[in-house]
Design a protein that fits this description.
By secondary structure, the protein is mainly α. About 80% of the residues lie in helices and about 5% in strands. The longest helix has about 30 residues. The protein is globular.
Length: about 300
């Protein structure tokens, strides 16, 4: 049955990712904001739901490496695997705001996270700071989008769905992402434990991959439908949500100890974030081409190889 749910989880995630993109684009048209902002807010929140479920559940079950490793590993796979694979499928133009504003905020989130875990834990106060910063990011993103679109007199295409239907599809697709990720993760973990793999390795590889499948499904579907702002915006926004939202909520519920071994994975997360910036330059006319996607995929495979070797 584990293998059945593994396959079923993938199928549900792919269908849900498609619905999430369609509803996100429709909402962008209705509320007169860019698809990039929808990508870094609404779509990112929906695709981060599996990570939230896994991290909160792991913290409550006293599995701190899994609570932290799920987020760190997911952020690594979001950039190196998801964005890398999407770029291999189709060249992705880079919106200048992704380089000038969204990436710096993602890197800021990553560095704040690193500083907070230097004392060996994420506590309640740090969770409050994370949630506050997340609210600031969302409000600032919406405001900047409205100013930019007003400046260039952007003409919005007609929405494919009504507001109510768009919201309904958004909720249905988010529920599908949650169910699909749950089936995928639980079956993968069951298989991995039978093979004798450690909690940390499972969390930063198998579980992180499983909870990143929504981002993979959403980004690939967005690329195929030429909604490329959602592809990049979804990844950057999801990484910000993972740190500020998921770890923020989780540490509000319960303080999370952070092991020394986990810092190795955090260094990888920081390094791959820097690599993404280098590949997105120069600002304003950059393109994530197929060879750059191959570079990201190579970095991901190298990380996975070293994790299992250690």
């Amino acid at each position: 049955m584990d293998y059945f749910y593994l396959v079923l989880g993938f199928i549900v995630l792919l269908i849900s990712g498609d619905l999430l993109v369609k509803s996100g684009v429709a909402l962008a048209s209705h509320f007169r904001i860019s698809t990039l902002v929808i990508g870094v807010t609404v779509v990112s929140l929906g695709t981060s739901a599996p990570e939230l479920v896994v991290s909160v559940g792991a913290a409550m079950k006293d599995l701190p490496d899994m609570a932290i490793g799920n987020v760190v590993g997911s952020n690594i796979s979001n950039i190196a695997l998801v964005l890398g694979l999407t770029a291999v499928i189709i060249n992705i133009p880079v919106n200048k705001n992704s380089v000038r504003f969204d990436w710096p905020f993602m890197m800021f989130a990553s560095l704040v996270f690193y500083i907070f875990i230097l004392d060996g834990k994420l506590a309640f106060t740090e969770g409050l700071i994370f949630i506050s910063l997340l609210i600031v990011f969302v409000l600032w993103s919406v405001r900047q989008s409205r100013l930019e679109l007003s400046r260039i007199n952007h003409v919005f295409s007609k929405a494919r769905y009504t507001v109510s239907l768009s919201v309904l599809l958004l909720l249905v697709s988010t529920a599908g992402l949650y169910l699909g990720a749950t089936w995928l993760v639980e079956s993968a973990v069951s298989i991995a434990y039978r093979l004798g793999i450690s909690e940390r390795v499972i969390s930063v590889t198998i579980i992180a991959f499983g909870t990143s499948v929504p981002e993979l499904a959403t980004s690939v579907m967005a690329a195929v439908k030429k909604q490329l702002d959602i592809s990049i915006g979804n990844i950057i926004g999801s990484n910000i949500f993972n740190i500020f939202g998921i770890l923020g909520i989780t540490s509000l519920i319960k303080s999370i100890p952070v092991s020394m071994e986990m810092r190795y994975d955090i260094y990888w997360m920081l390094a791959i974030s820097v690599l993404l910036l280098l590949l997105m330059l120069p600002s304003g006319r950059a393109l994530l081409s197929r060879w750059k996607g191959a570079v990201l995929l190579t970095a991901y495979l190298s990380y996975i190889f070293l994790v299992f070797k250690s």
